[in-house]
Amino acid sequence: MKEVDKIALRRWRKRGFYSESVLVKLLQEHGCHSVRIPVSNPSLSPLPDIIARRESDVYAFEVKNAGYYAYFPKQQINKLFEFLDQMVPIPEAQKHAVLVAHFGKKWIFQEMNWKNWKENTLLEQERLIKHDEGNFDMTMGGRKT
Length: 145
Prior knowledge:
Blueprint: H1 3-29, E1 33-36, E2 50-54, E3 57-65, E4 69-73, H2 74-87, E5 95-103, E6 106-111, H3 114-118, E7 125-129, E8 136-137, E9 142-143
Parallel strand pairs: 3-5
Antiparallel strand pairs: 1-2, 2-3, 4-7, 5-6, 8-9
């Protein structure tokens, strides 16, 4: 690998680490117990970037640091559901697969639907744009109504 490529890769990883670390603190400020899962490379293991719990609800977060668009491939979304399905023995209504895009000072949270995962109707990728609203409110701990 070229030296320039290594530097760019390190910078990209640091951005992701920064967003994940800041989100852990943000979640804790909103009453969640949360931890960052330190996986430094893409893996086939069904692990989210962050796991959090508030009361009886468990959240699996996939986090992207972005400028204007954040893309989440289907494989990463599947991993969130696989983790929750295989490792968290509580009812689905209490398990949340959430995509998070960090655009500087703005955060967008998009909760994914269990029905789409079970019916294998997830899109090939999800895209969050800086001016999106998202459907998940961290201060309320769940879907916006």
